[in-house]
Amino acid sequence: MADIIDGKAFAEGLRARVATVAADFEAKAGRKAGLAVVLVGEDPASQVYVRNKGKQTLACGMASFEHKLPADTSEADLLALVDRLNADPAVDGILVQLPLPAHMNEQKVIATINPDKDVDGFHVVNVGRLATGLPGYVPCTPLGCVMLLKDKLGSLSGLDAVVIGRSNIVGKPMAQLLIAESCTVTVAHSRTKDLPAAVRRADIVVAAVGRPEMVKGDWLKPGATVIDVGINRVPAAEEGKTRLVGDVDFASASEVAGAITPVPGGVGPMTIAVLLRNTIVAAHRAADLAFDESAL
Ligand code: NAD
């Protein structure tokens, strides 16, 4: 039976470390580190997520600035708000919650965020920094996955990794991070010819697909470490109820894997914790204060 990688506990520990660093930052800088979150429209999942971000930001001793705009806000008004946040010295990190309403160009909005406040790591400047090994901001979910992997395995150097999914938010930055950790990386996606064969070669499997329980236990190399990014809502046994499952078939995979993240309680809780980590890093850089980022 595989070890369970407890992302919830790791995320709690990370938030506690961020809180300690945030208190130290406030003492040195004479102000709190600040995170601004912009939500356009009333998508229920986004509302929950933004509320949790706000609560956890405050709990870490940082300032939270929430901007909730109606769904019919014009793109020009949203860009003007981002410009104001770019210029506001109390704001170290800016996150515009995606998806945006259809009448807005997400790329244009992301491109307007100052890359040095882009704590989500989606701006092309930060994508380029990650690809070239320069310090910048890395998307929170894949960075959280690497933290869990290193916590479990120590050095990842020389390991074979497969990343299933090639999105800009998870799959591609995940592959870049694993290359930086000296893994041999395969990126699989919807056109991959023989996915089970690609998965079977891997010591590390990261599934970021959005297909419930797609990756089966008999695809895995025995002892592999499995990181399940997927969050899929499926009907539960009880009528009218739903439950969350990942992209990995946990029941069969946990029989073969050496270690595996559960859903929920694996990768999910890491995302906001890493966002807070990125924000306190941004605050130190903005204030030109040194601290050991690797200690987080
Ligand atoms: P996406 O839809 O942008 O990308 C999915 C990727 O899966 C694509 O690159 C596609 O090529 C690949 N794919 C689709 N069908 C496939 C198949 N049959 N075989 C192999 N590859 C296939 O999704 P995303 O934004 O990268 O998110 C992926 C999953 O991770 C979703 O379930 C999402 O909810 C979840 N997610 C979780 C977090 C979190 O834990 N905080 C954050 C982001 C995304």
TrEMBL record:
Family annotation (CDD domains): NAD_bind_m-THF_DH_Cyclohyd (cd01080)
Keyword set includes Thylakoid: no
SUPFAM superfamilies: Aminoacid dehydrogenase-like, N-terminal domain (SSF53223), NAD(P)-binding Rossmann-fold domains (SSF51735)
InterPro entries: Aminoacid_DH-like_N_sf, NAD(P)-bd_dom_sf, THF_DH/CycHdrlase, THF_DH/CycHdrlase_cat_dom, THF_DH/CycHdrlase_CS, THF_DH/CycHdrlase_NAD-bd_dom
Pfam families, per the entry: THF_DHG_CYH (PF00763), THF_DHG_CYH_C (PF02882)
Subunit structure, interactors included: Homodimer.
Pathway as given in its UniProt record: One-carbon metabolism; tetrahydrofolate interconversion
Family: Belongs to the tetrahydrofolate dehydrogenase/cyclohydrolase family.
Name this polypeptide is given: Bifunctional protein FolD
Species of the source: Novosphingobium beihaiensis
Substrates-to-products reaction catalysed: (6R)-5,10-methenyltetrahydrofolate + H2O = (6R)-10-formyltetrahydrofolate + H(+); (6R)-5,10-methylene-5,6,7,8-tetrahydrofolate + NADP(+) = (6R)-5,10-methenyltetrahydrofolate + NADPH
